[in-house]
Specification:
Elements (H helix, E strand, L loop, with lengths): L6 H16 L14 H7 L3 E5 L2 E7 L3 E3 L9 H4 L3 E7 L3 H14 L5 E8 L4 H10 L6 E4 L10 E7 L5 E4 L11 H20 L3 H11 L15 H11 L5 E3 L14 E3 L2
Parallel strand pairs: 2-5
Antiparallel strand pairs: 1-2, 3-4, 4-7, 5-6, 7-8, 9-10
Helix pairs in contact: 2-4, 7-8
Length: about 270
């Protein structure tokens, strides 16, 4: 049985909900990106939510609901309970692009997450309830592209409607790295906290390095003399630029406080 709502409707609800949650964690850097059908085939994803220091890439799937009324279903014998099923051809170009993007994210060349997302409900009433309660993503299966493999033909992702357990077929197995919307929120919150702390820290070593770069060619002092205090070295570089510096407190190169907070001219 197909869902009573379209993939477009589900996608809109998922984007709206994800953006609402993520904007409470990160600052937005732009509007959600929904590529054209032609561009989607090349990129692999249906939607990109861009935040400062984070991006969420989603590919939406409209599942089939399988119940006792469908005993001839190829997945019924294995699951034995009503379930939701969607298929992905791992040989297709679109899936290959998602895998490439996921590899970039895992390698640190992109910051974010890449997922297939499909609802675990099929009636319009259930969709309405989830939409109004803000639980569309909570009641959806979230799956990394790599869980389905590559160049291995067509696979089904099956979620038991009673136990909520997800199985990747044709060789039945549970996802290697199970994830749900709550996991994603927790992880992105941790990333945001780490990033904000790094932005708030005063690091004199980094400041000195920046001044060395700016004054390159203007002074012979092109390296750090560790026998001279860092504040004195920074003051010399500031003098080359014709300016003075003050610190709201004194810190060493490891960001450890050296004295009480106050206004201390660098001399």
């Amino acid at each position: 049985m197909e869902t009573d709502f379209s993939e477009f409707s589900f996608g809109y609800a998922a984007i709206r909900e994800a953006e609402s949650v993520l904007s409470g964690i990160y600052r937005r850097s732009g509007a959600p990106v929904l590529p054209s059908l032609l561009l989607e085939e090349r990129l692999g994803w249906d939607a990109k939510l861009s935040m400062v220091e984070y991006a969420l890439f989603l590919q939406f799937k409209r599942p089939t609901f399988v119940s006792r009324r469908h005993p001839s279903s190829p997945t019924w014998d294995h699951i034995g309970n009503p379930h939701y099923r969607f298929a992905v051809d791992t040989d297709e170009h679109q899936h290959q692009r998602l895998l490439e993007l996921e590899r970039k994210v895992n390698a640190g060349r992109e910051i974010g997450d890449v997922y297939y997302v499909a609802p675990c409900f099929h009636t319009q009433d259930d969709f309405n309830d989830a939409y109004l309660a803000g639980t569309v993503l909570e009641n959806s299966v979230v799956l990394s592209p790599s869980e389905l493999g590559a160049n291995d033909g067509r696979h089904h992702c099956v979620t038991d409607s009673l136990t909520k357990s997800t199985t990747v077929m044709s060789h039945p197995r549970h996802p290697r790295r199970p994830v749900d919307w709550a996991d994603i929120q927790h992880r992105t919150s941790g990333r945001a906290d780490t990033w904000e702390r790094s932005q708030d820290r005063l690091n004199l070593s980094a400041l000195e390095q920046a001044l060395l770069h700016v004054t390159e060619g203007l002074t012979v002092e092109s390296r750090r003399d560790r026998n001279v205090p860092v504040t004195r070295r920074i003051d010399r570089l500031a003098t080359v630029l014709g300016c003075g510096l003050v610190l709201l407190g004194s810190y060493d190169e490891d960001n450890s406080p050296l004295g009480p907070v106050g206004r201390h001219p660098l001399k």
